[in-house]
Amino acid sequence: QVQLVESGGGLVQAGGSLRLSCAASGRTFSYYAMGWFRQAPEKEREFVAAINWSADTTRYADSVKGRFTISRDGAKNMMYLQMNSLKPEDTAVYYCAAGATTIYEPDYWGQGTQVTVSS
Q: Going residue by residue through the chain (119 aa), what tens digit of pLDDT does each one get?
């Protein structure tokens, strides 16, 4: 059974940092693009960041560029999102995703982890 499990969410003050982790199991995701999406209350889910299978290409939403860093460890089947200088507008449920062809049409989703940034 393929699973993506996020962890590391929580409550943090504005300006603080959090590190999200995504643990993949059930298959190897070595050749999958992986990424993070988020969904705030009453808003549609949006793209946050992505990393290709070889970890040499990353992409970020304009709203998080310079503050968030995505990384992955293929040997451990793990992916991470380091979030710095957090803002209240970053408050959302963050989802891990994996796509064989493109991260913008993921084949697998995690269950999500809540990130709340207080002002």
A: 789 999 999 999 999 999 999 999 887 788 899 999 999 999 999 999 999 988 899 999 999 999 999 999 988 999 999 999 999 999 999 999 999 888 999 999 999 999 999 99
Contact (CB, 8 A) for 72 and 34: yes
> Cα separation of 6 and 48, whole Å?
15
Measured over the CA atoms of residue 96, residue 99, residue 102 and residue 106, the dihedral's sign is: negative
Nearest CA to 72 out of 20, 107, 109, 27 is that of: 20
Cβ(17)–Cβ(87) under 8 Å?
Answer: no
Strand blocks (E) in the chain: 3-7, 10-13, 18-25, 33-39, 46-51, 58-60, 68-73, 78-83, 92-99, 108-109, 113-118
Give the three-state DSSP class for 83. Answer: strand
Of 47, 59, 35, nearest to 107 by C-alpha is 35
- Asked if 108 and 15 count as a contact pair (C-beta separation under 8 A), the reply is no
